[in-house]
Design a protein that fits this description.
The structure holds 2 protein chains of 2 kinds.
Chain A (H helix, E strand, L loop, with lengths): L1 H22 L10 H34 L17 H29 L22 E8 L2 E6 L5 E3 L2 E4 L4 E7 L4 E5 L4 E5 L5 E5 L5 E7 L11 E7 L1 H19 L13 H4 L2
Parallel strand pairs in A: 1-5, 4-10
Antiparallel strand pairs in A: 1-2, 2-3, 5-8, 6-7, 6-9, 9-10
Chain B lengths: L1 H30 L4 E3 L1 E3 L2 E9 L12 E5 L5 E2 L3 E5 L3 E8 L21 E3 L2 E3 L7 E7 L4 E6 L21 E8 L4 E6 L23 E7 L1
The chains are: A alpha+beta, B alpha+beta.
């Protein structure tokens, strides 16, 4: 028992700092947004907390394999295994405390600290960022098989590309025109289901300039695997120029667009031919 | 002992045969594609000619809506796999024989990614009323999207079986787009035109050879 504890202690003392300092900064999804950073930090904390338990199991099994391996040709039953109440109690208490502690901490970061952690919260979100009333509204429309985006604050212009201003709160309204999709802006740490007839709200606060990938995370038909785009986090000035250019470029088609709404109900029966 | 071994062997052989059949079916489904139809002409200018029909009229899904492609010899082929040269201007002519279904998203009513715009029956059209669209020809990764105006539902001499002829009611849509470096790109229709399927998005809308295809851009 003492040998196992010594091995476990050595593994933990070496492993946990390595996880926090070396592995942690490289865990997904990165630090492009406040939500992504929170997710990366959560991944780091969970890995660091769980690692000692994994090390204990590895040390125990490793020791058992070496110390208790069968020797010689004669196979015999080993000594009977009996319960050891102190060990069982410690195991149950430690693992229960670990799970409950992570659940409490996760709930806190999800609701209070990370404003929904980039996840879709449905039409009535409860985890709101402080300045959500001034957030940039972006509607994400999934359809077989592409994403388009509408900006109700800019004449409801619709685009095929997504630019977002850095250091601004963004409020995504994710919906679909046909089947269920899932809007996954990986580096931003945003993932929200796009469901027909549902306005699924998610928040993000981009912190770094750069390009992020957008994928569909819900199997949605033949070209699901091709439902891929890239978006850009740009400066506020660049965003203003970009959205102005989009309004100008899309003016020719604007009159035909359906008036902006939180969700759309295309008429499938009539449209189906 | 010997009998149980024989039974076990039989089970193993049976499972192996079933696995082989399943693997063959899946591989056949994934690998088999319509033959590629090459564009007419060579780099830096080539031409594609397509037609859309309300029902293909033959094969296992004879009542499915479909595209057809014309090969360089002028013969219509039931294929949506197209080959075009890289770094070229591709002139596309689509004979549109189907009636209007309407766009689910009016955004696709605007032609995009073209060189010189879209012409319907020779007339330059900046955008199409989404209710008049029958299909679209869209290559999302190249930024190309073109709505195809449907034939009036009360038009005379409508085509019912492919390949349709120019003597039958149709709209002619012409446009040009530019290819870049080589690669394979998917193309599709954005109109929910799969009649008889939920939301119109089943059947032909989910099938290469009907309303979806590949564009091979060859360097």
């Amino acid at each position: 028992m003492r040998r196992i504890l010594v091995v476990w202690l050595v593994l933990t003392v070496i492993g946990v700092p390595l996880i926090v300092l070396v592995l942690g900064p490289h865990l997904p999804p990165g630090h492009m947004s406040a939500e992504a950073s929170d997710q990366t930090n959560a991944n780091t904390v969970m890995t660091a907390v769980i690692a000692p338990i994994v090390f204990l199991l590895v040390a125990y099994f490793g020791y058992a394999l070496v110390a208790f391996r069968a020797r010689g040709d004669v196979l015999e039953d080993g000594a009977p295994i009996r319960g050891h109440a102190p060990t069982q109690t410690v195991w149950l208490v430690v693992t229960t405390a670990t799970v409950l502690g992570l659940a409490a901490w996760g709930s806190y970061t999800l609701i209070v600290s990370a404003h929904g952690a980039g996840g879709g919260q449905g039409p009535n979100p409860i985890a709101l960022p402080a300045n959500y009333k001034s957030a940039l509204q972006v509607q994400v429309i999934g359809q077989q098989w592409n994403w388009t985006y509408r900006f109700p604050g800019y004449g409801s212009v619709e685009t095929e590309h997504l630019d977002l201003p850095v250091d601004s709160d963004v409020e995504f309204h994710v919906t679909s025109l046909d089947v269920t999709h899932s809007f996954w802006a990986y580096q931003l740490g945003v993932k929200a289901d796009a469901v027909p007839g549902v306005d699924n709200i998610a928040f993000v606060h981009p912190r770094k300039l750069g390009t992020f990938s957008i994928r569909c995370a819900e199997l949605c038909g033949l070209w699901h695997g091709h439902m891929f785009q890239t978006g850009d986090v740009v400066s506020a000035t660049a965003f203003a120029s970009w959205i102005a250019a989009q309004k100008k470029a899309e003016a020719f088609n604007q009159k035909y667009l359906t008036p902006y709404a939180r969700q759309y109900f295309p008429e499938p029966q009539r449209r189906a031919g | 002992m010997r009998r149980s071994s024989a039974k076990l062997g039989l089970v193993v052989v049976g499972v192996a045969c079933a696995a082989a059949l399943i693997a063959y079916y899946i591989a056949s489904y994934l690998v088999v594609r319509p033959p590629a139809v090459a564009a007419s002409g060579e780099a830096p200018r080539a031409r594609i000619t397509l037609q859309t029909v309300a029902s293909i009229g033959f094969g296992p899904h004879h009542d499915w809506v479909s595209y057809l492609a014309q090969n360089p010899r002028g013969t219509w082929e039931h294929s949506t796999v197209l080959t075009v040269p890289a770094h070229s201007l591709i002139r596309v002519t689509i004979y549109q024989y189907d009636t209007a279904t309407g766009l689910r998203n009016a955004y696709w009513g605007g032609p995009r990614g073209l060189v010189g715009g879209m012409r319907i029956n020779g007339k330059l059209v900046p955008t199409l009323d989404p209710n008049l669209a029958s299909h679209t020809f869209a290559i999302p990764d190249l930024g190309v999207s073109v709505p195809l105006q449907g034939v009036a539902s009360n038009a005379k001499n409508q085509c019912s079986v492919a390949p349709c002829t120019l003597a039958q009611a149709h709209n002619t849509i012409t446009f040009t787009f530019r290819t870049g470096k080589g690669g394979t790109f998917r193309w599709q229709c954005f109109v929910p035109c799969g009649a008889g399927f939920i939301f119109g998005f089943g059947g032909p809308m989910q099938s290469i050879g009907y309303m979806d295809g590949y564009l091979h851009v060859v360097a």
